[in-house]
């Protein structure tokens, strides 16, 4: 209209006269009214409405004008002059506004009536919240119009950090009542992964458009511009549920990781939380591992700060001074590229302090600079859980107990599934003579990550926590486990001290607890 008002008006009137009215009449519809550049049409059959829409869109495929079409099924109020009103009309208008040019969107009510009766396929666009309509509307696109009339979308470039989407989980039980449980698992996983700083996570509203559609992970990757896809299934039988989860590389279709969980259904929400925590803790290191393999194929001149951080991660988890020194060197390279990289600052600060904890570095030489790096990381990105962990660990070394607990609890608020933060908080609480609270935190760490690379350390921290809680037998047992897993671990001192206190009670046992290991 801006370029040629009169010419466009003539084209619109010709479109109405030569295409729309003949198609509407052919499919037994009634033109209710025109609204400038829009048309409101009533049909006695949703099948005929869809066929008329397809007929019109095919005739306009190569023309200068494109239409958006929305089709809804519902009761209407008919005025004496033939005009119609009501929510049925409002939903159709909202669908038209959501539609792609040249496309056709139908509501769930229309889809239920026409599926299998018209020779077209539909794409599930999920539930959409539309203006002035109280409940979300199920929306489907006529796939034929999507393929024929919508220009092929340009592939989305992959972000410079791990990108991931969680597809709606498939309800294998067939009971529609269980859909809410499958949807809840996927939604909680999306939220849990989004808490991982440094990950690019697609929102639920986009990923849930694939609900009910058989899709290939590589197509999803191209559609959403992500490298990794999480998909899963839920099968419930009586009071038991089986949940399968799979992580795939969307660029190759290769499976990166999969697992299965069989659980009793006692508390649905607690079960969702448990599965979410287990999967997030499993997926994070798997993605780091896959990223490391990918980055090792890059030329050294192409490496950036993220690449160096990923190369450092495997050395962080290997508890030798040599590997930890290698990790610090790689993190220093990351900071050379980007001195304001909060995650690299936080990891470097924490690992430097970890070497002090094991007696591999001098306290006075390391702690001051490490705490300053951690503080800088928090100032740059206060929502990075690793930065908060590093700062809390530094406060613990300086015996600033309340500050340490506050920072570590903040780390857990940012990422409740951060097992190492639970362990460090347990250690801090133990030093603060809060043994019972310390036991609860280390139990949470072990429950979240039962096969953690730090498992020997977790056992040692648990030994110390039980010791400070006055349970010397449990302290000795967990110290024994820590020593069995790794000689010279942090459980060794707690174990030897607890052994001497196992048989003691009353005043002498309390004296053991006060002195600590």
Verbal overview:
The longest helix has 28 residues, at 268-295. The protein folds into 3 domains: 5-149, Alpha-Beta Plaits (2-Layer Sandwich); 163-295, Rossmann fold (3-Layer(aba) Sandwich); 300-515, Serine Threonine Protein Phosphatase 5, Tetratricopeptide repeat. Residues 146-152 and 503-509 have low confidence and may be disordered. By secondary structure, the protein is α/β, with parallel strands linked by helices. The protein has helices at residues 5-26, 46-59, 87-98, 108-114, 143-149, 179-194, 204-207, 217-224, 268-295, 305-317, 321-337, 342-357, 363-380, 385-397, 401-414, 419-431, 435-448, 455-468, 472-485, 491-501, 506-515, and strands at residues 29-34, 39-43, 69-71, 77-78, 84-85, 104-107, 122-128, 137-142, 163-166, 170-171, 200-201, 228-237, 240-249, 255-264. The chain is elongated.
């Amino acid at each position: 209209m801006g370029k040629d008002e009169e010419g466009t008006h003539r084209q619109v009137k010709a479109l109405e006269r030569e295409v729309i009215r003949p198609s509407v009449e052919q499919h037994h519809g009634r033109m209710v009214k025109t609204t400038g550049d829009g048309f409101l049409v009533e049909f006695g059959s949703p099948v005929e409405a869809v066929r008329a829409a397809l007929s019109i869109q095919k005739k306009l495929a190569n023309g200068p004008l494109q239409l958006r079409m929305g089709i809804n099924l519902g009761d209407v109020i008919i005025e004496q002059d033939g005009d119609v009103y009501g929510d049925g009309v409002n939903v159709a208008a909202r669908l038209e506004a959501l539609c792609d040019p040249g496309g056709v969107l139908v509501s769930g009510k229309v889809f239920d009536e026409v599926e299998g009766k018209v020779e077209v396929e539909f794409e599930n666009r999920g539930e959409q919240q539309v203006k002035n309509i109280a409940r979300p509307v199920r929306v489907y696109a006529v796939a034929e119009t999507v393929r024929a009339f919508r220009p092929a979308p340009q592939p989305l470039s992959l972000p410079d950090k791990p990108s991931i989407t969680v597809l709606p989980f498939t309800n294998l039980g067939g009971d529609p009542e269980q859909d809410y449980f499958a949807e809840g698992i996927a939604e909680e996983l999306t939220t849990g992964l989004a808490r991982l700083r440094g990950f690019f996570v697609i929102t639920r509203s986009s990923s849930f458009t694939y609900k009910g559609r058989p899709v290939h992970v590589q197509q999803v990757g191209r559609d959403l511009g992500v490298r990794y896809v999480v998909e899963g299934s839920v099968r419930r039988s009586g009071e038991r549920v089986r949940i399968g989860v799979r992580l795939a590389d969307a660029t190759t279709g290769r499976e990166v990781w999969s697992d299965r969980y069989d659980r009793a259904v006692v508390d649905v929400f607690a079960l969702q939380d448990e599965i979410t925590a287990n999967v997030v803790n499993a997926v994070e290191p798997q993605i780091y591992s896959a990223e490391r393999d990918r980055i090792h194929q890059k030329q050294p001149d192409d490496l950036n700060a993220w690449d160096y951080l990923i190369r450092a991660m495997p050395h962080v988890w290997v508890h030798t001074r040599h590997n930890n020194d290698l990790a610090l060197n790689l993190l220093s390279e990351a900071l050379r590229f980007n001195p304001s990289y909060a995650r690299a600052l936080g990891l470097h600060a924490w690992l430097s302090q970890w070497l002090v904890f094991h007696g591999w570095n001098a306290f006075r030489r390391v702690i001051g600079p490490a705490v300053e790096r951690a503080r800088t990381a928090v100032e740059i990105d206060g929502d990075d859980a690793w930065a908060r962990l590093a700062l809390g660990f530094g406060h613990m070394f300086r015996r600033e107990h309340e500050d340490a607990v506050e920072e570590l609890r903040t780390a857990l608020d940012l990422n409740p599934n951060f097992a190492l933060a639970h362990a460090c908080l347990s250690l801090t609480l133990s030093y603060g003579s809060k043994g019972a609270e310390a036991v609860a935190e280390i139990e949470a760490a072990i429950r979240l990550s039962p096969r953690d690379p730090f498992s020997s350390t977790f056992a040692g921290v648990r030994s110390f926590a039980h010791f400070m809680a006055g349970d010397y037998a449990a302290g000795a047992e967990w110290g024994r486990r820590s020593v069995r897993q790794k000689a010279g671990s942090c459980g060794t001192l707690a174990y030897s001290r607890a052994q001497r206190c196992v048989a003691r009670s009353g005043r002498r046992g309390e004296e053991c607890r006060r002195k600590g290991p």
